[in-house]
Amino acid sequence: KMVGVHKVLHSWVRELSLGHNLLSRFPRGLPASLGSLQLHENHITYITSGSLRKLGNLTRLDLEYNHIRAIQPGALQALSKLRVLTLKGNKLTSVPGRLPTSLARLDLSENCISALDLPSLSSLVNLQSLKINSNRLRSVPGSAFDSLARLRSLDLANNLWACRCDILYLYRWLLSGGVRTAADIVCTEPTHLAHHVFITSPQAGAPTNPVPTFLEFLSREPTFLGVTTP
Fold first, then answer.
1. What 3-state DSSP class applies to 174?
2. ∠ CA 126-101-171 to the nearest 5 degrees?
3. Cα separation values, 13 from 8, 20, 36, 103, Å
């Protein structure tokens, strides 16, 4: 297994797979011609701003199942052609800042993200698929997804959803557009609502919109949780 990469790659290489190795940092000396780079299942912990500066032709980058705790803000911004970014199974606690606006598919599942940063999301105007399931999200701030006009698939399952009045933004937003939810979204609190499904994923062949459940009642009767909404 590899622990480093020597600068012996030809300048015409378009695809490179370095997955299942022992790399502890982003490899240096990669050819600028690369369009697809797979670095899954290594030991990378940090991405610096200079790591990808010369890889402006990348359209696909796979970093899943590393040990990435942080990505320096703007480290991926120079990848103006990047369409697919996979960061599944790392140790990120927030959505990386200043991601390329060209992104169409972003996978942040199986991390430790506890909050959605509005500036990080609002710039992703070309995003079509977002996976942020299996994190530590408890709520979604109002307007979090409003700028994602092209989004068609969203996976929010297996988070720590607190089904209180501020969850209504997410509920109403999901029902207002053509976004498909990949799996049921389930409450974890308050205690009397734990394990209740508040959005059901449509079955194959069903309409794109998610299926409303008990929160349809909640939106009409905001005192259901002992709180009131305007």
1. helix
2. 50
3. 11, 20, 10, 22
pLDDT by position in tens, the chain (length 230): 655 555 545 678 899 999 999 999 999 889 999 999 999 999 999 999 888 989 999 999 999 999 999 999 889 999 999 999 999 999 999 999 999 999 999 999 999 999 998 888 999 999 999 999 999 999 999 889 999 999 999 999 999 999 888 888 888 888 787 788 878 888 898 888 888 888 777 654 455 555 556 555 455 545 444 444 44
Other Cβ atoms closer than 10 A to 37: 22
For 159, which DSSP code? S
Neighbours of 97 (CB within 10 A): 16
C-alpha angle with apex 107: 78 to 212, nearest 5 degrees? 130
User: Rounded to whole angstroms, how far apart are CA atoms 26 and 67?
Assistant: 12
Contact 102, 82 (CB under 8 A): yes
Query: Cα separation of 170 and 162, whole Å?
Result: 12
Residue 221: exposed, middle, or buried by beta-carbon count in 10 A (0-12, 13-18, 19+)?
A: exposed
The Cα diameter of the chain in Å comes to 66
The tokens describing 221, both together, are: 């009767």
pTM: 0.87
Task: Please give the full DSSP string across 182-230, using - where no structure is assigned.
Answer: SS-EEEEESGGGTT-EEEEPPPTTS-SSPEE-HHHHHHH-GGGGT----
